[in-house]
Amino acid sequence: MTQQQAREWGTKAAGQWLFKGTVSGKSIARQGRGALSAVFRFCRELQKQKHTGPAANWLLDQLWLLRREAEQAAEAVRGAGRLPAIPHQGRCARVQQLGEALAESELRDREGLLAALEAIQQVSPLKEEELSILLPCLTLGILHRIRTLTEHWQDSEDAAAVLKDCFDRLRLYSGRDWSRELEGLSVIHQAFLGDEIYTQMDPRGRMGYRRRLAKLARRNRLTQKEQAQAIAEQAKKEGKHLGFALFPPKNYNGTW
To answer: What are the angstrom distances between the C-alpha of 30 and each of 73, 75, 185?
Structure first.
């Protein structure tokens, strides 16, 4: 898939989202653990067979990788709080559905994946709390794809090719540090880049600022982009650092 096709994919995906309430991170984690248990039960049955084909060999050989990554992903999403939901198979978190859609897509490399996500951020931006669990949800999307394959099992070369693709993607997601790329996708981060002190902070400090902004946006019932732009503009107007706006003194009577 070309960069342009990846951007078109992202634009189309984001344009189809219709929001319906919220879903908890605990719910996503519970579904992920349930899917992993189902795959393990299936694999136990495969192990009882005297002869297995190419797909079964792929699945059994790489089961350790799936277990490691899926368990870590489920634990990561468990504390995510309430997340925007869409009416997909009843109702599921937007970032969860995105992970499942990407698992089925032709987006198999870093450049294409980032191009699609950048396009999504232009249409219907993922929130800070969604970006923080995007990689775990990509992993759970792969798990969902593998579970679906086991439910319609055919021990064939085609199924083996699907499994190879799944495990290649798992290695792509887990084999590098994506923190810089995910930070760059944040609409809060983009709004804060005009502040010289923010840009010089370490990643943990910048994350703390973005989480504080997300909390303010919820309290003020604004989108994170609206809240970030308002604070950045006010800080620039008054010649103050963003930190004064995000963590004002108790006796401050300004307009933050």
So the answer is: 11, 10, 27
213 and 176 part of one domain = no
Maximum Cα interatomic distance, the chain, rounded to a whole number of Å: 76
Q: What is the pLDDT of residues 87-142, one digit of tens each?
A: 877 789 999 999 999 999 999 999 999 999 999 999 999 999 999 999 999 999 99
Kindly state the tokens that stand for 101: 């859609």
CB 119 within 8 A of CB 8: yes
**Same domain, residue pair 212 and 112:** no
User: Quick check: 256 pLDDT over 80?
Assistant: no
Q: Which residues of 184-198 are buried (b: 16+ CB within 10 A; e: fewer)?
A: ebbbbbbbbeebeeb
H or E element that contains 40:
helix 25-47
> Of the candidates 136, 153, 185, which is a domain's last residue?
185
Residue 22: φ, ψ to 5° = -135, 165
Q: Are 188 and 226 in contact (CB under 8 A)?
A: no
Give me the number of domains the chain comprises: 2
Q: What percent of the chain has pLDDT over 90?
A: 82
Question: Do 155 and 135 meet the contact criterion of CB atoms below 8 Å apart?
Answer: no
Mean pLDDT of the chain: 92
CB contact at 8 A, 216 and 128: no
